[in-house]
Every structure is written in C-alpha cells, then in structure tokens.
Amino acid sequence: MKAFPAxxxxxxxxAAYQVEGAAREDGRGPSIWDVFCHTPGKTAGGQTGxxxxxxxHRWPEDIELMRRLRLNAYRFSVxxxxxxxxxxGAVNEKGxxxxxxxxxRLREVGxxxxxxxxxxxxxxxxxxxxxxxxxxxxxxxxxxxxARLYDRLGDRVRYWLTLNEPWVVVDAGYFVGCHAPGxxxxxxxxxxxxxxxxxxAYAVAAYRASKHAGGAISFALNTxxxxxxxxxxxxxxxxxRAMLGFGGWFADPCYYGDYPAVLRERLGDLLPxxxxxxxxxxxxxxxxxxxxxxxxxxxxxxxxxGALQYQTQAQPHRAHTDMGWPITPDGFRRLLHWLAQRxxxxxxxxxxxxxxxxxxxxxxxxxxxxxxxxxxxxHIAVLRDVLAEGLDVxxxxxxxxxxxxxxxxxxxxxxxxxxxxxxxQQRIIKASGLWxxxxxxxxxxxxxxxx
Length: 451
What we know:
alpha/beta, TIM Barrel, 8-stranded parallel beta barrel
C-alpha cells in the first residue's frame, strides 16, 4: 500500500452562512440567504443561519478541533456582507478583522487556509438595488470586493476560490427557486450564470495583478459523471451532452473562453455572448480544478426532455445517503479521468466530498457513523487509484468539518466529521472524524483502520 504525496493537503470545508451565525453582529449586513430564510415556507421548519454553529465566536475552539483531526488545510468562505455590508463602498473593518484573526491562527498551527470568496451569500442590497447576478455590473463589484481580500489576506493565503458551485447558484436559485434568491426564470438564470463567469474572470485578473499574486486560484466546480443507460450510441451521446451541460457549462469558458459548442447550438439566445475582452480573461483562468463531488447519474436519450434531450434514471441497486443521492465512487474515478482529458494540464484538489447521514450519539455519548466512514474510504481509495494512473491530485477536503445549516434543508441534514448540538453548541468528534485523523496521520496508509 502506497502513501499519498508528502505535500498532500488533507482538509475539511465549511461555508460562512452555514457555520458562522452572528448574523447581525459587528456591522454585518444581510445577505440574500438571510432574506430567504426569514421568508415563511422557504426552509425546513423555518430555520435560519442566524446562529448556526456560532463559529464566529467559537472559532478558536473549532481550530483546536481541526488540530485534533490532524488537518493540514481548511477551506472556508468569506461572508461578502460581513466585509462589505452593501456589497460595495466602505469596508466593515470588524468583519475583515475576523478573517484576519482566523487566518493568522490557522497559519500559527500549521493549517493551510483555502479561501472561497463567494459561497452563495450575496449582499441583500445588491439583490434589491440591482437585481443580483443578472446585472452586468455585478462582476466588477465582485472583483472590487475580491481585491480587498487579496490585499488584506493575500500575504498569508496561497489558495483561493472565486465562486462555489455556480451551477447550483443558477439551478437552485434561478431555475427551480428552492435556494436564494428564490427566482424561477430560465432566461434570468442563464444571464446570472454568464455574469458569475465574468465575475470569476475579473476576480482572477485582479488576483494576478495584485501585490500578493503567486498563489493559485480557481472556482469550485460541482459536477458528476453520467453513465450511459445502455450501450446504444444515442445513450452514449446523451451522457456526453449531460456532462457538457453540467460541468462543461462553467468549466469550458474558464479553460477555452466560451461555452461548449453543444450548448451554443441547443440553447441559442439563452446563452449570452462573451465580449472578446471577457473571453480573453476567462481563457486560462484556472490554476487548478477544484472539484466538489458527491454522486453520479445514469442517463438515457430522451427526445422530449429539454434542449439537451436526456433524462436521468433511478439507480435502485445502489446504496443511497440520507440526501437520496446514490453512492458512486466508480463515477468519481471516471469523472476525474474525463476532466483530465477535457482540461489537460491542470492539477486537482477535491474541495468537497462527503455524505449525509442522520447519525445520533449512542448510549456511550459517541457518534458511530460507520456508513460515513465507508463512503469516505471508498472515495479516497479512488484518489489513490488515479494517482497511480498518472493524475495529478494534490488535496482532499471533506464536506464538512461540522454539522451545519444545510441551506433549504435547515438543520435536518448532517454531513459533519464533528457533530454539533445546535441548542448547546457542544461539539463531538464522530467516529468518521477519528478515522479521518488516523488516515491523515499515516498519509493514507491507515485507510482500512476504524471499521
């Protein structure tokens, strides 16, 4: 059994609105998620992120827990409205100071910070005043915000992500409406997606022009592998369309400077055109592929299902997590190879991977989450395999460090390596967290321990 590379990043991830709480403290402005959660009927049980895991106050304790997990990296996001309450203009120094202290302490204890600039919490003022991401000025406002972070934290932060999962921002926020800002308008959604890509491009350009340039920057791509339902050529073609319409929608412009040809052909005027300047900024704007992976699907050709003409099939033979997602480590492996082939020359960091289970403390007070251990073991084993096959994988971040506020699902869904009691804020490292710590301690050699 071979260990992972000596400089491999072993981490866990969180997002500001999901863990910080302190929604109205120290000058923080409201985000679109504050508005959404306080609108009746939008989240499970009307729950909000007002307190969440209270990480804003408990971050020193949480960093000590990271040390117990032996993490050498931690991915977190900055709350745009905590730093710039209106989304532009004056900086809230108290908000910026919080992230300054957080980064300082992480560096002191040998944990590499990976900072996400936007994990869905758009300042509410920008939604109300400009209509949010569908406004063409948002990308430049975002780049201005990003520049403030580079200037303040860039001397200690070497890894940056501009956006988290823009596909989800569009699909859940603008197509389905189950996430903030709760809009159902496909034309607006494609316009929002277009501006998210422009925002990424402008923020990358700002980083590369900054005094602290020299680290690495990307965005967090969520996507999945599409298995053809049969050996038929039409199902194989449908599966490829599905992958280009999911991962390719946002990754292709950042690598090639435009959307996949099949999307241009089939979506027509729904996809805006990039200016020559924007295309030039987008092209080559990824220093690495940051992949968020949870599951894969089975796809068949279906002439009557949308412009891309495919539908997904149930996978009753697979085990599923409590999100109802099939467990597909084989799809993880295939997806990594597909991405490496389509976007050659880029290293990989797995910036999210994990499983949701309704785990409760046992009579002994411990959380025995064997199903999560199995999920993590099977997916990390894939990384060992693809490393041996020549892929350049440099880091793995489990989602998530803590049980937290899972967006519209509220507090009903638990992904954490650490259990959070939301009433008392007590933290308990789960069996999966102890297993992960052993894995990190042995740099991948202890994968079979902790069954």
